Amino acid sequence: MKTKLLVLCLSTLFYSMIPAGSYAASNAVITNKTSSGIETSSATIAPSIAPKLSLSALHKLQWQPVNTYDTQTVILSGASQQLNNEDIRGAIAAFALPANQGSLEITLNSLIKDNQVYSPNVLVLDEQLNPAAFYPSHYFHYQQPGIMSVDRLQGVLKLTPALGQQRIHLLIYTTLADLKSSTQMVDPAKAYAQGVGNAVPDIPDPIAHHTETGTLMLKVKSERDAGNILIGQVFSTPAPKPVTVGSTQEVSSSPVRTTPAAVPQSTAPAAKPVLSDTEQYFNDAIKRAISHGDIDKALKLLDEAERLGSPTARETFIKLIKSKG
């Protein structure tokens, strides 16, 4: 039995070393590394470009702190913050997220009301307000209403703050191009007919016009309070890894996008080797996981440790697995 466990773990470890890009995912695209160290998506259609904003303008914004245990609802109105940029229009939202609670999974909803909706773009910045990732408006897709939800635009962001930061930032805005477009919804009668298996009526779907104001709902889960936020699944088809926000030794994959997204080059200082305390933390955590028989968790810890530059995590993992054999 122990021999079979050893073979299974080492085989899983081998497959976990294969880059995520070697798997075919229905919504994944090819990635290319930019000179800033952040990978951006590559496709054959016109690119979406992140705005170039000055540090002075970003420092003037009021960044609203987000509690990872709550859902934040923000009403954007004419009295909300705005940015003086030739492409950005109307109200904006600026959030500061905790960077010391592990990987973050952020669900952003823009609610549709009276056939109007705010079409969001999201620029992710590190603690020093250097751009790290960009999610254009077409990343946020229309979602039909449910029992506890309304018509909305929704997108999920998966981010991993680099060590040493206290916070990262989300800048949410809409653009002149977004205001010229609209979102096609699904008529409630059609949705009902589809749900119960009846013939779908031939009626036009309503249109939601994009506006400079609206209502946003932001929900943030951290690795600490949400259980396991997987950083590359092992025993099933792997999901795209979170994007790393801030300077690290190695760079994780970019968020999944339907078109490429470019960001200005970061001026963050060069990455430093992983700290000895951090390295020891991961080695101890791997030991505890294996001692409790949680090989899946140990592999996730190994993946995270090596992504941050640990030179001993893999050796620790293999020695412990062999000792159990």
UniProtKB/TrEMBL annotation:
Pfam families: MalM (PF07148). The keyword Signal applies. GO terms for cellular component: periplasmic space. Residues 245-257 have a biased composition (Polar residues). Residues 241-270 are annotated as: Disordered. GO terms for biological process: carbohydrate transport. NCBIfam families: PRK10564.1. This is Maltose-binding protein. It comes from Xenorhabdus khoisanae. The lineage of its organism: Bacteria, Pseudomonadati, Pseudomonadota, Gammaproteobacteria, Enterobacterales.
